[in-house]
Design brief:
By secondary structure, this protein is α+β, with helices and mostly antiparallel strands. The protein is built from three helices and six strands. The strands form two sheets. A three-stranded mixed β-sheet has the order 2-1-6, covered by helices on one side. A three-stranded antiparallel β-sheet has the order 4-3-5. Bound molecules: zinc ion. The site of zinc ion (ZN) has 7 residues, from loops.
Length: about 130
């Protein structure tokens, strides 16, 4: 499962950071999930919580944050897709990001980024 291996990498990283800092516990972890990363938030949360149990990260709160890709048009216009996609239900469909017309010239824009899972912050107790 895609989500499971991603969650493994995150938990391994969190544990190594906690050990490096002589942490007693990990309070919370903020994880940015790219809208184009093909990750199911419920599944990744389940995997993270399962993997965190029996480790220093047991009981940690996982905060999942959406990362919207930047959009760029050949006419030179660029912006973040969050400004262009106002209907939040629709933005769970990845195809929406591939069909965004440029607000200035109307051509279909290209997306940049938004494909990664990143640990944005880790709050540890020392
Ligand atoms: Zn344009």
């Amino acid at each position: 499962m895609h989500e499971y291996s991603l969650a493994c990498n995150i938990i391994e990283h969190v544990i190594s950071i906690a050990e490096l800092n002589n942490a007693k516990a990990v309070n919370n972890i903020t994880i940015g999930i790219g809208k184009l990363a093909h990750v199911n938030p419920d599944q990744i949360l389940f995997c993270l919580e399962t993997l965190a149990s029996d480790s220093i990260a047991q009981g940690t709160e996982f905060i999942l944050v959406d990362i919207f890709p930047d959009m760029e048009c050949e006419c030179g216009y660029s912006c973040n897709s969050e400004q262009l996609i106002k209907d939040n239900d629709r933005c769970d469909d990845i195809r929406v990001f591939l069909e965004i017309p440029c607000p200035t010239c109307g051509k279909i824009m290209h997306e940049l980024g938004g494909r990664d899972l990143v640990i944005q912050s880790i709050d540890i107790e020392q």
